[in-house]
Amino acid sequence: MPRISAKICGLSTPDSVGAAVRHGASHIGFVFFPKSPRHVTAEQMQALAAGVPGHVAKVAVLVDPDDELLAAVAPAVDVVQLHGAETAERVAAIGHATGLEVWKAISVRTRADLTAAPSYRGAAQRILYDAKPPVGADLPGGLGLRFDWALLTDFGHPLPWALSGGIDIANVARAVTTTGASLVDISSGVESAPGVKDVDKIAAFLKAIASL
Ligand SMILES: O=C(O)c1ccccc1NCC(=O)[C@H](O)[C@H](O)COP(=O)(O)O
């Protein structure tokens, strides 16, 4: 079992899913957000997820999802990752309704942004710290942006957590050393263009993770 686990996010082709699974991703993410170049439909996700072995957790990345979308995607995944403005009450309700593990993404730019995390205790099972997008950005995540990882150095984490935002093969060792993360999430860093996953980058990244 590697010391550091990795979620490869924003997969939309059989090749990229295959590369993530073959090279040891612990989690694979599917984005349900029409404005995203990584957007997949529930039907596409079901086809992509069909052959994924049980030890690789499938994560549905959702932004303020309604109950209809949740009902469509939940049966085919293991985790729901909420990347919108979901309150703790909504996060808890989604957990109860789906019976799935729920992760809440927190957008971070300053230390003050971290104060949102404790409010999800008892509602989410994990916090995903991601970089805060610029005002007016089309996407709430998947922008390849980093936040100041030193903000997490002495933070008293209220829940299990993962580190996200602008991670790539060149900086992942520093990301892990600085923050103490044991689960990292990557999307743009293993792409050749927005939404286009590069199987060689996926393989190289997961190889690098395994050696940390
Ligand atoms: O990736 C997207 O397009 C996306 C769209 C809408 C909501 C969330 C999205 N991504 C969330 C993720 O989990 C990404 O992996 C995370 O933001 C890190 O992305 P990156 O900085 O590109 O590695």
TrEMBL record:
Family listed: Belongs to the TrpF family.
One GO molecular-function entry: phosphoribosylanthranilate isomerase activity
Record-linked SUPFAM superfamilies: Ribulose-phoshate binding barrel (SSF51366)
EC assignment: 5.3.1.24
Keywords: Amino-acid biosynthesis, Aromatic amino acid biosynthesis, Isomerase, Tryptophan biosynthesis
Broad class of enzyme this protein falls into: isomerase
Annotated protein name in UniProt: N-(5'-phosphoribosyl)anthranilate isomerase
Pathway: Amino-acid biosynthesis; L-tryptophan biosynthesis; L-tryptophan from chorismate: step 3/5
GO BP: L-tryptophan biosynthetic process
Residue ranges of coiled coil: none
Domain N-(5'phosphoribosyl) anthranilate isomerase (PRAI): residue ranges: 6-207
UniProt keyword Amino-acid biosynthesis present: yes
Highest taxon of source: Bacteria
Transmembrane portions of the chain: none
Catalytic reaction list: N-(5-phospho-beta-D-ribosyl)anthranilate = 1-(2-carboxyphenylamino)-1-deoxy-D-ribulose 5-phosphate
Organism for this UniProt entry: Sphingomonas sanxanigenens DSM 19645 = NX02
